[in-house]
Amino acid sequence: MIRVLFAFVLFFAALPARADVDIKEMTTPGGIQTWLVEDHSIPFVVLELRFRGGASLDAPGKRGATNLMTALLEEGAGNLDSRAFARATESLAASFSYDVSNDAVSVSARFLSENRDEALALLRQSLVNPRFDEDAIERVRAQVLSIIQSDLKDPSEIAGRAFDTLVYGEHPYGSSLNGSLEGVSALNRDDLLAAHRAALARDRLYVSAVGDVTEAELSAILDQLLGDLPATGAPLPPDADPNLPGGVKVVDFPTPQSIARFAQPGIDRDDPDFFAAFILNHILGGGGFESRLMQEVREKRGLTYGVYSYLLDRDGAQVWMGSVASANDRVAEAVDVIRAEWERLRTEGVTEQELQDAKTYLTGAYPLRFDGNGPIANIAVGMQMEGLPIEYIATRNDKVNAVTLEDINRVARERLDPNSLTFVVVGQPEGISGTIN
Amino acid sequence: MRFLILALLAGLAFAFPARAEEQVTTFTLDNGMEVVVIEDHRAPVVVHMVWYRAGSADERPGVSGVAHFLEHLLFKGTKTMEPGEFSATVARNGGSDNAFTSYDYTAYFQRVAADRLELMMRMESDRMVNIQLGEEDIATERDVIIEERNQRVENSPSALFREQHNAAQYLNHRYGVPIIGWQHEMYDLGLEDALEFYRTYYSPNNAILIVAGDVEPQEVRQLADTYYGVIPANPDLPERARPQEPRQMAERRMTFEDPRVAQPYLSRSYLAPERDSGAQEKAAALTLLAELLGGGTTSILTEKLQFETRKAVYTGVWYSGLSLDDTTFDLTVVPAAGVTLEDAEAAMDDVITGFLETGVDAEHLERIKMQIRASEIYARDDVSGLANRYGRALTQGLTVEDVQAWPDILEAVTEEDIMAAARDIFSARNSVTGYITAPKVTQ
């Protein structure tokens, strides 16, 4: 039973890096760019692929198609049906996982050196020649429908949905990437083929590899693996325009503990004030037990098990978000305390000690993230998605250290905006009346 | 395709161990504290953990949740540290820290740069014996754990269902009581309850130190002697003998209704033997049986119920051999739309009966063993995972030798062993069958 879920701490895991990690940037003869870290100490390879766009590429009226398509990639490919594909993967003790978010389709592969070629041949089939057999579609569709149904009664999911709908409206971010019961029921095989062509294309591809493989080997591997994917996919959607009017939206749901999501406008990571905002957020609600929100809401008042804030930097929207959960008769106080802390931080700023503590944590934690082939591969592909160069690894701590007390307190005054801080509360909260319909 | 509503159950899934003896050094301090060092010099990181052989199943009746409550309270002050100073100090050194409680253990850990190990040992050894708590710490932190229970259990019909199911499975053992505690008992947990648990169980001769990462065993030994070795052993440490299960003689069935249930499903558990030191063969056979029956797309339940008859949208089987006392072998079926729970249960039982008749498919078993061998390679990439493996084993009645013998024992399991284990385990008298569903709407 972990004492606190650090779910959002990982949000920034894609940025820092070990200073001495040796990443090679390379381009294959076929034109695929990749980052490679050679490590021959354990006889296996981790390969991470990201296709930008993900579920946001769902065609109009086809919400859920990219999700269902992605779930079916491992359900039969080439001349292997679903079960034959699974048996083949197991025989090689390889692991392939296919995941989708609103910004990317992610493929994570792990395979042994001793049967690398066979494993890659299987992986290639799943990416290039997925079968989308009718029986597999029906089976996986039933699973997705069951998940959608369950989410309709899960307070945390309800909160996420209500928040997304309010904030992102008609943008793909505004609805569940699973799709709706009706929408998913209506998807057909052609929709999945179209979603596959739209999402898995080379013009939006990011690759990292870590482990027992050389530069020359990886070049040949990637051209073979990915060369037959279409050169271009569907255009990315326009940016969202987050609606954060301030106030509270209450969604009635009979459950003992209310769940709240809250947000104000965020900040782009290209913004010159990004690092100041990043440290500011760490002090506000990003830094485990020491953050102001944890101290005030949990440690001093016992109102929650966990309260967090984080800078959510999506491809098409930036919001400064947070979450908390408190019993129905206590959540009103939790919301009040969060609002008060938001205002106090804006007007009073942080202390020199808080800034120093945040810097020592953030710069000290920086090398700890690179402790294995799996984590390194994830970070390397994430950095590419963010548009960060390899040199960033060497300069990132300097950027953190360069933030002054004046910078951070100016950013607090300019960027923290209690008036636009918008709460969505799901449950039966006492003493909270909604101001947003 | 993973199935979300059962995500919490996945915590029960076993992980195959690693063949990593070459990374592991063990020794014992003069006061009886065991030490395990796992070397991985690829990154300048260290994980420092102290595991206590004390968990919720060691609580006395009436104070359920006190082991976990105490875990929270260890982040309050000691004679020399202010409340919160522990975690704040770890953070100021670029590290992160946390703790977790289970039935058989409580563990505290920090993940820091390797050159901060000494500071971690100084602080962790301090709170092994020197905590200082006031009534106000108790009141606020009790509210926190009540909110934790709200979040994990009260807000989740699946979690409430699991609690009821477990309680029905164990007639006498404390495994039937939730780790976080029953809600009504949590309200009354007090300072003296926590301190009593602390004084009884927190001592070097009831603890295991695990240090994993970029360290040398000799350095760990010196530091451990300096900080932990000076703490006297507790001569009054009680023998770890908890109330055991009697013969179970009656099949139990239960239905849990909650309007928040969107997807009904059923779960079945059988009381099962655990891994015992020097005698892990039966548990190894059950481990492979669970894989054959429910380990992924090619497993028998999936094959029959999801591919052939299509009566289920999801099936799963779990067996965790890591447990100090009797454990469980668990099956779950989520019926397809239009299939009743009774139908789904009958279909599940047909699969078990069929398996007992047809036996093990040799190729299937070989695929699973191939994955076991591979997992020994993959596990070397995750030194924290290795640390957890040793911590769990050593607090649950096993030795370092048992951990290291486990891959070979799994490899040696035969088809006959598996069938013998299957015939033993599937006995209705040892079982609980639960349905979770929304209440029927009355007309």
Task: Give a description of the structure.
The complex is a heterodimer of chains A (437) and B (443). Helices cover 41% and strands 19% of the residues of chain A. Chain A is globular, with a radius of gyration of 23 Å. The longest helix of chain A is centred in the first third of the chain and has 18 residues, at 134-151. The two termini of chain A are 37 Å apart. In chain A, the strands form three sheets. In chain A, strands 1-2-8-3-7-6 form a six-stranded mixed β-sheet, sandwiched between helices. Chain A is α+β, with helices and mostly antiparallel strands and 437 residues long. Chain B is an alpha+beta fold. Chain B is 41% helix and 18% strand. Chain B has 15 helices and eleven strands. Chain B has helices at residues 66-73, 85-92, 117-129, 135-154, 157-169, 183-186, 191-201, 217-227, 281-294, 300-308, 341-358, 362-378, 383-395, 400-412, 415-425; strands spanning 24-28, 34-39, 45-52, 96-101, 106-113, 207-213, 252-257, 265-272, 312-319, 327-335, 431-437. Chain B has a six-stranded mixed β-sheet with strand order 1-2-6-3-5-4, with helices on both faces. In chain B, strands 7-11-8-10-9 form a five-stranded mixed β-sheet, sandwiched between helices. In chain B, helix 1 (66-73) crosses helix 7, helix 9 (281-294) packs across helix 15 and helix 10 packs across helix 11. Classes of the chains: A alpha+beta (437), B alpha+beta (443). The interface between A and B is large, with 79 and 80 residues.
Please provide a brief summary of the model.
The complex is a heterodimer of chains A (437) and B (443). Chain A contains 15 helices and 13 strands. Chain A is of the alpha+beta class and 437 residues long.
Strand-pairing-aware structural class of chain A? alpha+beta
Count up the helices of chain B: 15
Largest β-sheet summary of chain A: 6 strands, mixed
Strand content of chain B: 15-25%
Walk me through the topology.
The complex is a heterodimer of chains A (437) and B (443).
Chain A: E1 24-27, E2 33-38, E3 44-52, H1 65-72, E4 76-77, E5 80-81, H2 82-92, E6 95-100, E7 104-112, H3 116-128, H4 134-151, H5 155-168, H6 181-186, H7 189-199, E8 205-211, H8 215-226, E9 247-252, E10 257-265, H9 274-286, H10 292-299, E11 307-314, E12 317-327, H11 331-348, H12 352-365, H13 373-386, H14 392-401, H15 405-415, E13 422-427
Helix pairs in contact in A: 1-7, 3-8, 9-12, 9-15, 10-11, 11-15
Chain B: E1 24-28, E2 34-39, E3 45-52, H1 66-73, H2 85-92, E4 96-101, E5 106-113, H3 117-129, H4 135-154, H5 157-169, H6 183-186, H7 191-201, E6 207-213, H8 217-227, E7 252-257, E8 265-272, H9 281-294, H10 300-308, E9 312-319, E10 327-335, H11 341-358, H12 362-378, H13 383-395, H14 400-412, H15 415-425, E11 431-437
Parallel strand pairs in B: 2-6, 7-11
Antiparallel strand pairs in B: 1-2, 3-5, 3-6, 4-5, 8-10, 8-11, 9-10
